[in-house]
Every structure is written in structure tokens, then in C-alpha cells.
Design goal:
Layout lengths: L2 H19 L18 H11 L2 H26 L4 H16 L2 H15 L6 H26 L3 H9 L4 H31 L11 H12 L2 H38 L1
Helix pairs in contact: 1-10, 2-9, 3-4, 3-6, 3-8, 4-6, 5-6, 6-8, 8-10, 9-10
């Protein structure tokens, strides 16, 4: 377990007891019974809150999938020797890195129907907005990873008569992916957190469900505490998976060199 993961767990273990029992002097009347699984109403509320987990995970996974594909393509454009091709990369990256994610979500959902006559569901609009934003960062991650591969690898591939596609597929990209896996994992964590912004266009992911339940029972601190813990657990799981992949890829590299 990494140091950051231990710190997150410690913070959660400290936060919950403080909110449950350490605020008796405040004017707020705590109502933890609204989310206690031992009561019928609490169990129903928790079921409603947890129901947004799969949508959040699906949304983040699909968005990161498309952003990785687009980012890889853009990174190859950025490595081109042609000035105009490289310019496409720079314009795209600088444009979408500069637009706040929330603004991009709103423009995609409300602007595309007006500008292009393209009406998207909240789920599709969310994927498009997140993928556009994240692919700009993915492009820079891939570009840096590819450029970090020693020039001798490329020269050896050229000497063997590999085409550009073969060189990238069999030599450059496998090594680059091992090096950029940690930042790719960070981007997935970033995507999980940014998916909460899609609540503003009505998508019933974790944050939207928490907001709706808060309006119904008016227990914001209790409900948002559960929301914090939901995101905390999701991000810890993703971090653990990325760590395991790093170890696995590292082991594969060591065995290949023996």
C-alpha cells in the first residue's frame, strides 16, 4: 500500500468519527438514521446512493478509453516532422487544456444542438466532453513517453527494416506504456473525480444522486459524507489496480531480460 493510500484511509478513519460524535456542540442536529443500513429508510437511501456507482465507473471507463485512443493519435501527430501536422496537435492540446471541464460539459450539452443540430443524451454528452478534455492531457503523456525511448531502439528497428507501424507496435509503444502507466492511472482517477461535474446536466451518477437525496431528506452533511467515502473507496481501488499493473509489467520486463 502506498503512502498516499495510507494517508487517505487515515483521513477517512479520522473524519467519520469526528463528524459522528465530535460535533455535539454545534447547532446542527445530526440525523445519521437517514443513512443507517439497520433501518428500512436508511437502507433504502444507501441503496439509492450506491446505485450511482456503476454509472460513474462506466462513464469514467468509456471516457478514458476514447481519450487514450485520441490522445495516442494526437501524440503521433505531435511527433511528425511536418510542421502543419504538428500544428494540429498543438492547437488541439492547447485549446482543450485551456477550457475548464465544467464549461466544456455545458457547451457540448447545450451548444452542439444549436451549432450542429446534434442533440446528445447526458451520458453521451458527458463522455464526449470528458474525452475531449482528457485526450489533450493524454496526448502529452504519450508524447513524453514515446520521446523517452532511447534513440538506439528506433535505429535498431530501422536497421531491421521495420515499417513505422511495426516499429511503434512492437518496439516503441510497449516500452512507452510501461513508463507512462502511473500518469495514465492518475488520469483515470482524475476522470472519476471530474465525472461528478456531469450532475449539472442531469446525469444520475454519484453526485447527482447525493444532491437529489439531500433535497428530499435535507441531511447534507450525512449524505455528502457517504459521497466522500464512495469516491475515496473507488479511487483507492483504482490506485491499487494501477500499482498491481506496474508490478506485473515490471516483472514481465525483468523476466524478458533474463
Amino acid at each position: 500500500m502506498s503512502k498516499n493510500q495510507r494517508n487517505l484511509i487515515i483521513a477517512a478513519l479520522v473524519l467519520v468519527p469526528l463528524m459522528v460524535g465530535g460535533c455535539k456542540g454545534a447547532d446542527y442536529n445530526w440525523g445519521w438514521y437517514e443513512i443507517l443500513p439497520s433501518t428500512e429508510k436508511g437502507a433504502s437511501n444507501l441503496k439509492f446512493l450506491f446505485g450511482g456507482i456503476w454509472l460513474t465507473v462506466a462513464l469514467s471507463s468509456v471516457s478514458i478509453f476514447f481519450s487514450v485512443i485520441v490522445g495516442l493519435f494526437l501524440s503521433l501527430l505531435g511527433l511528425s516532422s511536418n510542421y502543419y501536422v504538428r500544428s494540429v496537435n498543438r492547437i488541439y492540446v492547447e485549446t482543450f487544456r485551456s477550457i475548464p471541464v465544467l464549461v466544456l460539459i455545458l457547451w457540448v450539452y447545450y451548444g452542439l444542438p444549436v451549432v450542429l443540430g446534434l442533440s446528445l443524451s447526458p451520458f453521451a454528452a458527458g463522455i464526449l466532453a470528458l474525452a475531449l478534455s482528457d485526450s489533450a492531457f493524454e496526448a502529452e503523456i504519450f508524447r513524453a513517453g514515446i520521446q523517452s525511448i532511447e534513440r538506439g531502439q528506433t535505429e535498431a528497428a530501422d536497421a531491421l527494416g521495420f515499417s513505422y507501424a511495426q516499429k511503434m507496435r512492437h518496439i516503441i509503444l510497449p516500452q512507452a506504456i510501461r513508463r507512462i502507466l502511473p500518469p495514465l492511472g492518475n488520469q483515470f482517477v482524475y476522470m472519476l473525480k471530474m465525472s461528478s461535474l456531469l450532475s449539472i446536466i442531469g446525469l444520475q451518477e454519484l453526485t447527482r444522486r447525493a444532491n437529489e437525496l439531500t433535497v428530499t431528506v435535507y441531511r447534507p452533511l450525512e449524505i455528502y459524507t457517504v459521497l466522500v467515502l464512495e469516491y475515496l473507496v473507488l479511487i483507492l481501488i483504482v490506485s491499487w489496480i494501477v500499482r498491481r499493473l506496474e508490478v506485473r509489467l515490471g516483472a514481465d520486463v525483468q523476466s524478458a531480460h533474463r
